[in-house]
Design brief:
The complex is a heterodimer of chains A (246) and B (219).
Chain A (H helix, E strand, L loop, with lengths): L1 E12 L2 E12 L3 E6 L5 H8 L7 E6 L2 E2 L4 H10 E4 L11 H12 L4 H14 L15 H14 L4 E5 L7 H16 L4 E4 L3 H7 L2 E6 L2 E6 L1 H6 L4 H11 L4
Parallel strand pairs in A: 3-8, 3-9, 6-7, 7-8
Antiparallel strand pairs in A: 1-2, 1-4, 4-5, 9-10
Chain B lengths: L5 H4 L2 H34 L3 H15 L3 H15 L6 H26 L3 H9 L4 H31 L11 H12 L2 H30 L4
Classes of the chains: A alpha/beta (246), B mainly alpha (219).
Chain lengths: 246, 219
């Protein structure tokens, strides 16, 4: 069953056409890894899906409802789509648990006790129950990203967007974040993941998409795209990425 | 010559009244100036031209005219255009508040702009509206950065209050002038006024240092 449908999505920044009529349907429970060279429009695609970036053309349909452009409508849509950023974007003036509670309190209007209980549960899920009262400045990059994941999960999103969640991390901290994301995959959550971790994409994704020139260049199962890519550009991209791994 | 502060001490009552007047106008202008400044600063930050242009015109007008001229205009010129007269306190408060609003608006705008775009992303991604993100995420962080500039503004407002003496509002300088002209002791009278200002402002400045240090704690 289709959760998200994107049709002919286009976005340009000045003279640079980043997305050129991209279409994509995401079924519930699908985990889609999005690969592509830098500048291929991966992040822009994610940001257009929850309208953090306003698409120039095309439509996004969430659960059968086409999303309009009114801010009041977009605010509601963003409550249903969780997003995790490369740079975490935690609120530095709030503790870890404060960060996770914030959406529940301000957006969902939960009571304080209720929000706190829920936030603590989400922190425990990502293994940070003991860091509830810590400010982001005193957390490692991996811990920050796990708090950011907990913050997104607290809103009960139907769809999770991960925008290069491990790219800003020291190599030794990547694993803990990938483990947290993998456990979400095992729960059957629907997610779109922009990543450079090809091994992770291979093991966790149900579908892999390779973006080039602002559109889907090749897609298929992880085996089809990552092991036996048909198109030349996908092959050379993967060759470049595998050069130093293994 | 010899210093003789007896003539100043004999007028302690007058100076106390002046100090009360100074504190009153300071409190009024601090609250009005900084809160109106926030509104204008948000207008300057807004993309909507209906908010941006009026706020910008306000800022440019009040930043580029002297406060003293504004106070005199409100006191002497405005009543001619209006069917009622304006008290010295009202005229001086208007001039100082509007001028402070214009300057603090730029502090607010700069502070808000200095917050990383990622903070807006983080707030909007959990479904916050513009107003919620501003109130809960952006402003608390921006205010912290603005604290030094805003406290400087407060100190400026305190000192600007002396301009109210030009419309004979009873504040410290006005009372000092009065004492000096009645007792022919300008050295003692104006020295006393300067010392009283220092006694008020020095702790205020120390308090702002303390505030800055406290605000920096969670960073």
């Amino acid at each position: 069953m289709t959760l998200l449908k994107v049709e002919n999505l286009a976005k340009r920044f000045g003279s640079n056409a980043v997305l050129r009529g991209l279409s994509l349907a995401v079924a519930r429970g699908e985990r889609i890894a999005i690969l592509g060279a830098s500048g291929s429009g991966k992040s822009t695609l994610l940001r257009c899906l929850n309208f953090m970036e306003m698409p120039d053309a095309g439509s996004v349909t969430l659960d059968g409802q086409m999303i309009g452009r009114r801010e009041s409508e977009l605010v509601k849509v963003r409550q249903r789509i969780g997003m995790v950023f490369q740079q975490f974007n935690l609120f530095p003036h709030m503790t870890a648990v404060g960060n996770v509670m914030e959406g529940l309190r301000t957006v969902r209007r939960f009571g304080k006790a209720e929000a706190r209980a829920r936030a603590e549960k989400e922190l425990a899920r990502v293994g940070l129950a003991d860091k509830a009262e810590t400010y982001p400045a005193h957390l490692s990059g991996g811990q920050k990203q796990r708090v950011a994941i907990a913050r997104a999960l607290a809103m009960d999103p139907e769809l999770l967007l991960f925008d290069e969640p491990t790219s800003a991390l020291d190599p030794e901290l990547v694993g803990e974040v990938l483990t947290a994301i993998r456990s979400l995959a095992e729960e059957g959550r629907t997610m779109l993941l922009v990543t450079h971790e090809l091994g992770f994409a291979y093991h966790v994704a149900t579908r892999v998409i390779f973006l080039a020139d602002g559109t889907i260049h090749e897609q298929g199962t992880p085996d089809e795209v990552l092991k036996y890519p048909k198109k030349e550009r996908t092959q050379s991209f993967l060759a470049r990425h595998k050069e130093f791994s293994l | 010559m010899r210093w003789d502060f007896a003539s100043v001490f004999a007028n302690t009552d007058a100076l106390l009244a002046g100090a009360a007047g100074t504190l009153r106008i300071f409190a009024i202008c601090l609250v009005l100036g900084l809160s109106l400044g926030l509104v204008v600063g948000l207008g300057r930050y807004a993309r909507n031209p209906w908010l941006y242009w009026p706020s910008s015109a306000f800022v440019e007008f009040f930043r580029n005219t002297p406060v003293l001229v504004q106070i005199l205009w409100f006191y002497f010129a405005l009543p001619i255009l209006l069917p009622f007269s304006i008290s010295p306190l009202a005229a001086a408060s208007l001039g100082i508040s509007l001028n402070s609003a214009a300057f603090s608006a730029e502090i607010y705008r700069g502070g808000i702009q200095s917050i990383d775009r990622g903070q807006w992303d983080g707030a909007r991604a959990i479904g916050m509206s513009w107003a919620q993100a501003m109130r809960r995420i952006i402003l608390p962080q921006a205010l912290k950065r603005m604290t030094p500039a805003l406290t400087n503004r407060a100190i400026e407002i305190f000192k600007m209050s002396t301009l109210a003496s030009t419309v004979a509002y009873v504040e410290l300088l006005q009372q000092g002038k009065l004492i000096a002209s009645l007792n022919f002791n300008p050295i003692e009278a104006y020295t006393a006024v300067a010392v009283i200002f220092f006694v008020f402002l020095w702790p205020l400045v120390q308090f702002t240092y303390l505030l800055e240090r406290r605000l920096r704690r969670d960073e």
